[in-house]
Amino acid sequence: MLKQAFLAVLLLLACCVALMQGLPTSSRERCLCKRPGMLSVRMDRVATVEYHQSSGNCGREELLVTLKNSRRRCLNLNGEQGRTIKEAIMKKRNVK
Predict the structure, then answer these.
(1) pLDDT band at 66 (very low <50, low <70, confident <90, very high)
(2) Where does the secretion signal sit in this chain (predicted)?
(3) Class of the CATH-defined domain 33-95
């Protein structure tokens, strides 16, 4: 009887672990951009551009611009410049 109860509890725990595996570990997202971002930046001041797709850490897309003075700014993907840069990056990724 004790063996059967132990096996039932062990089976129940195994099922719980299997179900919890897909759940997020934290309710906080670790996004690089806290706000929607700027609508545009002067391209002559841009050093690098990084596009991050949504992932398990952050549920939204982000476009991060590093300026020549080493400051990092988020660019709004709903703005015209943000959409244009994202499209160019996606084209470049698909070519490779």
Answers:
(1) very high
(2) 1-22
(3) mainly beta
